[in-house]
Amino acid sequence: MTCENRDEDMPKPLQLTESMENYLEVILELEKVNKVARAKDIAEKLEIKKGSVTGGLKSLAEKGLINYAPYNFITLTDKGKAQAEEIAYRHRVLKDFLLNILQIDPDTAEHTACRMEHAIDGKTLERLVCFVEYIHRCPRAGDDWLESFINYCRSDNPSRKNCDLCVEQIQPKYRPK
Amino acid sequence: MTCENRDEDMPKPLQLTESMENYLEVILELEKVNKVARAKDIAEKLEIKKGSVTGGLKSLAEKGLINYAPYNFITLTDKGKAQAEEIAYRHRVLKDFLLNILQIDPDTAEHTACRMEHAIDGKTLERLVCFVEYIHRCPRAGDDWLESFINYCRSDNPSRKNCDLCVEQIQPKYRPK
DNA sequence: GGAGAATGTTTGGTATTCCAAACATTATGT
DNA sequence: ACATAATGTTTGGAATACCAAACATTCTCC
Question: Which residues of chain B are within 8 Å of residue A118 when distances are taken between CB atoms?
Fold first, then answer.
């Protein structure tokens, strides 16, 4: 064996396209509800035609991400499930941030999370998780601070007139009971 | 004229692909530095081959976004410039959030902003702008609060032991001078 | 069991986006 | 001015990702 074969059995980094990530995500969802996924439901969820799904499934099967045989049910392999869970996690984190921190409406939050989940990297995601946690835990932030944020957003000419009251409320909050 | 022509002269919503948005963005950058953009520099910035650029430029010219004639310099039309500025704005907002709020390293922040800028919608972007502004302005947040966030991130077992000190510092900060 | 409905696949086609490499034009330096 | 370097374009080809519509299989219910 020569050095030409050196990276033959390397498990290549598995850089999935946005499309493939979306397939995995809905297959995971469908598996949770129905045990198995069906082409028709995948097509519906992805809002594409059923004819297109077959091609996508073949591609996923080639990558070892799903168990697929024509006319059979579709299930994720362990590898595919790990990937799908990863994507679903990114989705949850982003949606949580959009919904509960930025307080975007549920529909927009869902759709935006769906698009951003393919663009965010691991480092940024974990920092975002940490940031959301920090906001909820830090006595200087928290739910009332988030409520004030929305008032701040609504006011055309943002004033600080509520700051007095707001800052005074921090001390009692920090000494619970 | 029948109703069949009803949307003939509608200025269609101009939904640009990620690729087209990237072209516009670098053309704007190059224009700022060199007055005009050149295919070679576009290729370099986008990390694609120069042969691919010609196709992209033709597509942008067809959409009325750039002034383009073979072997000539490239400039943005007013329409193209407006679009490019819009994209550059999304980029700046996202990078600012990643860099100064989440405190991601500059390289990752740049690359992630580059990918996320195509996924974020206008509503979410404006809310993010507002959020960043709120953090900087609210006496309960601010730069020292962001510093504490990074300490919070670093601690393996996040404790609240710094909260006392931190909360006490809010009052003086709120009464400047 | 078999007809018809539901579901899945195949085929041929389109659009986008890129590459390599051959070719064309323009710019530069002596 | 003109050879050569630098830059830009064209061509043919590949990969992805989708559609429409014809075709195949499976399921359901009488």
Answer: 115, 119
